[in-house]
Specification:
The complex is a heterodimer of chains A (358) and B (291). In chain A, 71% of the residues lie in helices and 3% in strands. By secondary structure, chain A is an all-alpha fold. In chain A, the strands form 2 sheets. A two-stranded antiparallel sheet of chain A has the order 1-4. In chain A, strands 2-3 form a two-stranded antiparallel ribbon. The N and C termini of chain A lie far apart (48 Å). Chain B is 70% helix and 3% strand. In chain B, strand 1 and strand 2 form a beta hairpin. In chain B, helix 1 packs parallel to helix 5, helix 5 runs antiparallel to helix 8 and helix 6 crosses helix 8. Classes of the chains: A mainly alpha (358), B mainly alpha (291).
Chain lengths: 358, 291
């Protein structure tokens, strides 16, 4: 059991709350810095994917987990970022500039979709983003002069002011830097007044409004930041795959992204990373498990979908706080041993909570 | 004349959208949850009908009611097993849960060996009949869609207007708590609503099957029913049908007059415009939350 004696107001918003945080995150950082020498090339590539998805997850987490809005078309922003990066890097823009442009363009598109859509509530935003996602996918497929249409588009290696980052390691380093910067940015945002405004909107729009929070402005802002992060993720994604086509940014990709943040644990930054880890390792686990199943089940094409669906249903029903929530429970169990009670993380049902009103 | 034909096929397609949207609205009104699984229920329903006819060898008139019954049971079970335990959780959880159901349903159907990955023609008895009405050729499949939708709407209207269960459903959709205090078994009703929504989706699936084909991905059409529900104003049953018709006709006309590609996104453009201009839909009530 650790007791933190607070002697300073700054302690409330400090990123590393105590020595344990410093130690463990330091260790994680050391691992990530030495990973290219520690693990095989294949796993390094998977780790890169985890980081790319985490960036997108961070954006979606900010939107869904911290502002309480959800987007069923986030793959569209991923696509906008990816295609911007592809076009700009083909024209020889240096990577930092084109990355900033991808983020900026995604954010701008996010603002255009968000402004009208955010005035409506809950499910309408979901449907608006869903519609927008389909329109972007179709647009990417039809605007052949820029995007290459359904035939897809090749993406050149990263050009860092003349240096070609074409090796896996070089790309890993770039992803690592971008991920760390994005994570710190989001963490900082969340402890600022803006971040707290987001959380206030999530918890109750009416009370947030009566505290003087301009709902439309903050919702749009959250939407833009989320879209920008998705754009950054998309840019890296394009470089990672080196080939992009519109169907990589379809509806199912959007659902995968949502699944990632829900399974990771809505409302926690860790959740974005755990979710990305889940999304990348799950197909591997399934293909490992395939051999132990009878052929009729193991080799069937729908197996992965069924497993994803069941895992998702299981998490929503039994562990709504996701993987991070499960970890919190385990940690608390050890911290409080032997005083952990079953009901400590019990959800409170809110039957009265209703979106429609008399 | 060609225009008339295009519009009529749009109407028929719109009826399908409307029926699926009707399921959304039924569930939304009753449990205030948005079910993304409606399209998948439709797909399962079509497969049920197909299975009864092709592998059990039942005649059409027997296959249809048995598919309806089976899917009603599936809907009821879904509510009982998956939805009811998380009642009272944030709407977003339920939405994710229905996505889970989508994944499972589609995956399970794909997993059926030799059946799931193929497209099947649906052997409805009226399949190849068509009528020539003064130059406009109309397939019986489309006529049946329109007629069946109209019939179903009338049936639902009378159920909600006059029957005990229907009135109870209306009451519980207006105010669950008050309805519960009045002695209406709200939980059991919610199960019934899911069963009803699944059955309506099955009707849509069985009507759509002879026009297109039966395959594991036909549930995607459910995503086009969302715009229909929004255009009609997410909480109105007649609105769902009208919204479906609007979406269907707009889509058919976009496919006819506009360049290629617009047909697939016409529905989504309409819904975005609708959200900007009139977010509550054509028939929605403008309600504001008060403290």
């Amino acid at each position: 059991m650790r007791f933190i004696f607070k002697t300073d107001y700054d302690q409330d918003i400090r990123l590393a709350k105590h020595g344990g945080h410093v130690f463990w995150y330091g260790l994680l950082m050391v691992f990530l810095l030495t990973a290219p020498w520690l693990i095989e090339e294949y796993w390094l590539a998977q780790l890169t994917f985890v980081m790319i998805y985490s960036i997108v997850g961070l954006g979606l987490m900010l939107l869904a987990g911290f502002t309480g809005l959800f987007s069923i078309g986030h793959a569209a922003f991923l696509g906008v970022g990816a295609y911007t990066e592809a076009v700009l890097s083909a024209q020889g823009w240096p990577f930092p500039l084109s990355l900033a442009m991808s983020a900026g363009l995604s954010a701008a598109v996010g603002a255009i979709v968000g402004l009208p859509a955010l005035r409506v509530k809950g499910i309408y935003l979901g449907i608006a983003t869903l519609s927008f996602g389909f329109i972007v996918e179709e647009g990417l497929a039809r605007w052949e002069s820029v995007t290459g249409g359904n035939a897809g588009k090749h993406v050149k290696a990263i050009n860092l002011f003349g240096y070609e980052a074409s090796s896996n390691e070089a790309f890993y380093w770039i992803c690592l830097v971008v991920t760390v910067v994005c994570t710190l940015a989001v963490l900082n945002l969340l402890r600022s007044a803006t971040g707290r405004a987001f959380v206030a909107i999530r918890d109750s729009e009416i009370s947030a409004q009566s505290m003087g929070i301009h709902l439309a402005r903050y919702k749009t802002l959250s939407f833009m930041i989320s879209a920008a992060l998705a754009g950054i993720g998309g840019a890296l994604y394009a470089h990672k795959l080196q080939f992009i086509s519109p169907d990589q940014f379809n509806f199912l990709q959007s659902i995968d992204l949502l699944l990632m943040v829900v399974i990771g644990g809505l409302g926690s930054i860790h959740g974005a990373f755990l979710g990305a880890l889940f999304l990348i390792t799950m197909p591997q686990l399934i293909s490992l498990g395939k051999d132990y199943l009878p052929d009729a089940i193991g080799q069937a094409p729908g197996l992965q979908a069924v497993v994803y669906g069941l895992v998702l249903i299981g998490f929503v029903m039994f562990e709504p706080m996701g993987l991070y929530g499960r970890w919190l429970k385990i940690r608390t169990w050890f911290q409080l041993f032997p005083f952990y009670r079953k009901g400590m993380f019990k959800r409170q049902k809110s039957f009265q909570k209703s979106d429609r009103l008399k | 004349m060609q225009e008339l034909q295009v519009i009529f096929s749009g109407v028929a397609q719109g009826c399908i959208y409307g029926l699926i949207a009707l399921g959304f609205v039924l569930i939304y009104k009753a449990t205030e949850t948005v079910s993304f699984a409606q399209g998948e229920l439709m797909m399962l329903g079509a497969f049920c009908g197909l299975g009864a006819m092709q592998w059990l060898g039942w005649p059409y008139w027997l296959a249809v009611p048995s598919a309806l019954l089976a899917m009603g049971l599936v809907g009821w079970l879904t509510e009982r097993v998956a939805i009811r335990p998380i009642l009272g959780q944030p709407a977003f959880s339920v939405v994710m849960l229905t996505f889970g159901i989508v994944y499972v349903a589609r995956g399970l159907v794909t997993m059926i060996p030799n059946v799931g990955t193929e497209t099947h023609a649906f052997p409805a008895p009226y399949k190849d009949v068509s009528f020539d009405m003064g130059g406009v050729v109309i397939g019986a499949t489309q006529l049946v869609v329109v007629a069946a939708t109209a019939g179903l709407c009338l049936l639902l209207y009378f159920t909600f207007r006059y029957s005990r269960v229907g009135i109870a459903m209306q009451a519980s959709s207006q105010n669950q708590l008050a309805a519960y205090y009045m002695g209406i078994p709200v939980k059991r009703l919610n199960g019934l609503v899911w069963a009803l929504a699944a059955m309506v989706a099955t009707v849509a699936g069985l009507l759509l099957a002879p026009i297109t084909f039966v395959h594991a991905n036909m549930g995607f059409i459910g995503l086009k029913a969302f715009p229909a529900a929004v255009v009609g104003g997410f909480s109105s049953l007649p609105g769902a049908i009208v919204g479906g018709l609007i979406i269907g006709v707009v889509e058919a006309m976009a496919g006819f007059w506009l360049p290629e590609g617009f047909k697939d996104i016409a529905a989504y453009i309409v819904v975005l415009l609708m959200l900007v201009l009139k977010p509550n839909g054509l028939f929605g009530e403008n309600l504001r939350k008060k403290v």
